[in-house]
Amino acid sequence: MVIGTLADELTRGVGRVGDTIGEAFQPVIRLGVTGLSRAGKTVFITSLVANLLDRGRMPGLTAAAEGRIEAAYLQPQPDDAVPRFDYEHHLAALTAAAPHWPEGTRAISQLRLSLRVRPTGLLAGLSGPRIVHLDIVDYPGEWLLDLGLMGMDYDAWAEGVLARLATRPEPEAAAYLAAARDARGTRDWGEPEAQALAARYTEALAAMRKAGLSDTSPGRFLMPGEMAGSPALTFAPLPREAEAPRRGLRREMARRFEAYKARVVRPFFRDHFARIDRQVVLVDALDAVAHGPAALSDLSRTMSEVLGAFRPGTNSFLSQILRGRRVERILFAATKADHLHHTQHPRLAALMEALLRQARDRAQYAGAETRAMAIASLRATTEETREHAGAHRDLVRGRLTDGRQVAVSPGALPEDPAQLLGATDWQAGDYAAPRFAPAPLTLRPGEGPPHIRLDRAAQFLIGDRL
After folding, report:
1. Are 348 and 334 in contact, with CB atoms under 8 Å apart?
2. Per-residue pLDDT tens over the stretch 53-63
3. Which Pfam families is this protein grouped with (predicted)?
């Protein structure tokens, strides 16, 4: 076992040296893309790639505005063990005669986009264009939150989860708590009992997700993939017991919790997360606002946990696998800015800035450069102003996912985000979260799909490396 571990680490070390030598000639930017609860990762990546291939709508990306990106093209991804992000299929869904949103992220995937870029400054006259590879790594945001489990034992994790469930109004949460109490002291158990508890806990997580909450870890429970039904994904939080039976159900749940960390969480961070240079975290802040104060407070806490994942000095596990490497820039982007009139965009950006400040303070964060922004990866609406009751109302018009054409005012965000972040309640219906479908597109040659500030997001994430 020790020899195998040493050999594995030696192989990784040789691979890192090879990567470093290769990147000296053709730099590689590894961009991690993740999101919290239906934030639009797939659409973000698809639109970003399409707009880097055809850069007519990217004036905010300096290298594109200056004409220094001479060519962009897709290449086979470098990692043979990771599925390729299905860019062509997703773009076809968005640009079809009857456009529809593509399937969301269920597992990790990757795509390599290569850019031929002319250098600037002193290098411009000394060398010709160089190739810069952009490796985009797509993964569910719930997986990132699992990093917090690495510093916990089963007792601490279970206690925290049960305390949060006790505050929730969903019947699924109450049903699970009752089942957990009934399982106390269980000595003789079979696999059906363990599976039933795990299923009830998963139902509670799904109900909280539906209520707009962001933190529904463990991350694989709502998207298990090929691991569905495995013991590593068949556990649940149970109350402390003064003398848990040695072969009882609670001891088994604790063992499976440790197996989840060792077999699921650790490999992801070791093999994928540790190689990321830049990171974008997509956030559906409007949906959290529409679901009320509890959802917005949960989003704030979840962003704190995300930032904690980028502080290797506070986590010995992460420090061990990163070995001095750090993510350089992190963008928290509020998506679906097109669901608001443009006059509301500064207020959405201010809300994201306030959430990011809270997250930094809670996580005592000091590390990579961070920024908050309001964007729309694909613009699905148009704007109009109507007169109603003697006043002008700013509306957004679009097609809902049920096919209806509507013009709506989702509600005006306050100028001061503290009015939302410090509130314990606001009137139901004050803020709406309409589900718009993508609009039919007619693209001119050289243009990517329409967006809002995707070019500025790209400039922050990769502009300095171009």
Report:
1. yes
2. 999 999 999 99
3. DUF463
